[in-house]
Amino acid sequence: MELRYRFLFLDVDDTILDFTLTERAAYARTLASLGIAPTPEILDRYHVINEHWWEVFERGEAGREEILLRRHEQLFSELGVVRKSELCEEIYRTNLAIGHYFVPGAPELLQYLYDRGYELYIASNGVARTQYSRLESAGIGHYFREIFISETTGHHKPERAYFDYCFARIPGFAQDRALLIGDSLSSDIRGGKAAGIHTCWFNRKGKAAPPELQPDYEIHSLDALYDLL
Questions:
Q1: Which of 41, 153, 191, 224 stands the most exposed, by the fewest C-beta atoms within 10 Å?
Q2: Which residues are catalytic?
């Protein structure tokens, strides 16, 4: 039976690996090492700040290195403490690369897709060193034909140049047989639609997509992909 979609692009964070859990554990260790008590309220606030700065990056309003530091600077400013953002980022980056948490159903889904002949590709805006370490820890790198991380491609989602870079490196690629699966409307869905491929929004939190940014598909758990595909 011919596959409806042959080329599947999967985001990493909060699509395959649960970045929210990883972030919280890593930032708690980081703050503690800097002499700041990692209370639930502070960790919640960092999560909001971090999401904001990555959206700034995705809109092309700031560079990667800038936003990686600005997120810590903003938190420290709000807390009224003085710490070096460069040191915080170094410690945090090390902690982020330790271990992994799977999104429920991710290992089983990857094995299912791999066994049935889908061509799987990673499409991530994450920091390369961290992403490669987490993928190695999770033991899932062998499922993917290519791992496209924005830091190593020179472009990032949702830029068209990022997708052009990916497409050019896939033998026999056909846009009408490609599907991007990710949790971010601003990078995954916006980028995939602009690049002319189908998109599937992994909406775990039950948010509402704006009228101007509707994905081709919407799922609330990875199990829904079995029927969709």
A1: 41
A2: 11
